[in-house]
């Protein structure tokens, strides 16, 4: 994994919050911070002419100002800046393949600014090659119910059927900030047609469906607990919708980590309903980790 955390900045309040979060995370993990701004020159057939030189100057100033702000807060942090002369989505997707983490603001400038998640962030999330963290502005976090009171800081991990990538990221994030890890596994009663004799026997041997789910969570956690013995772990198994269970468990969550499949049926790129729900409603930053 690269030792670089990359953040896309665009001059918006959310982009500024993303840069501040990424700088703090890079400092915690002992990584380099890379600031990037992507822009594309205007097509020649558009009726309105844009001053591309002025746009480039503005972008360069934005990167310089952002670099000055984060280095003032983290003077020992190595910071580089890149101006990417390309459309934002493919440029940021390419950056995600090189970085340990790509950080974006949950919204930015553009036609879809009224949406809870900006259109660029959504397109990048669907195609990203590595973990992407979406960060809200501080005001929006407060409106969403982020808890600023005292208590145990937690990293939450949604543990599904392919947990290793999510747990690797979550344990590393918890270890870096000295936080507790809350591993959350939600389950529901399966359709009768999905249960054969082998599945029923396994459930009986473990003491029922709830006990079976607790065993599955414990088994998934075991190798990662041995690699990160300093991280305290809370195991939470709860019946219900995965998104609802995760959102109801935020509490003192400093970060929520969920997974997504790299592609859906017929190769279609998707985020998944659980990741989509928590991205819209979680009061803390959300990391989306692609499964192979």
From TrEMBL:
Residues 3-136, 160-290 form the UspA domain. Belongs to the universal stress protein A family. SUPFAM superfamilies: Adenine nucleotide alpha hydrolases-like (SSF52402). Pfam families: Usp. The lineage of its organism: Bacteria, Bacillati, Actinomycetota, Actinomycetes, Kitasatosporales. PANTHER family: ADENINE NUCLEOTIDE ALPHA HYDROLASES-LIKE SUPERFAMILY PROTEIN. This is Universal stress protein.
